[in-house]
Amino acid sequence: MVPYTAPTPIPALTTATSGGAGASPAQDGIRANCVLPGWVDTPLTRQGRRDIPDLDRRVRERTPIGRWAEPEEISGAILFLASPAARFITGTAIPVDGGYLVRG
Q1: For residue 24, what pLDDT is reported?
Q2: How far is residue 1's CA from residue 4's CA, in Å, rounded to a whole number?
Q3: CA distances from residue 78 to 17, 28, 50, 51 in whole angstroms, order as listed
C-alpha cells in the first residue's frame, strides 16, 4: 500500500494501475478498485502534527471540508466498494479526501 502523503504522481499511478487491473479479470467477477484517502486522524498523524510545525493548519486550510478525516469515513468507501451495490464498478479510484485533490 502506498501512503497518501507521497507526491501527486502516486495517486495517478495508483489510479492507472487499478484501471488496468480492473479490466482483465472483470469477466471472472473480480473487480479492482482503489480508495485514495486524504489526511486521516490516527495516532501516527497526531504525532506528525506535534512534530511538524503548521501541519495541522496547512491540512485544514487546503482541505475544503476544513478538517482531518476519521478512519470510519475512509472505511465507508471501502465497504461500499466491497458491497453488492458496487458490483458494476471496476477499474476506478474514489478519493475520500474532503476535497483535498480539487485544490491541486
Answers
A1: 63
A2: 9
A3: 17, 21, 29, 30
Q: Which amino acid is at 43?
A: P
Rounded CA gap, 36 and 92, in Å?
10
Q: What is the pLDDT of residues 27-60, one digit of tens each?
A: 888 899 999 999 999 999 999 999 999 999 999 9
C-alpha cell at 37: 484517502
Nearest to 52 by CA among 62, 40, 44, 61: 44
Q: Tell me the CATH number of domain 19-103, given options 3.40.50.720, 1.10.486.10, 3.90.215.10, 1.20.1110.10.
A: 3.40.50.720
pLDDT per position as a tens digit, 9-31: 455 545 555 555 555 678 888 89
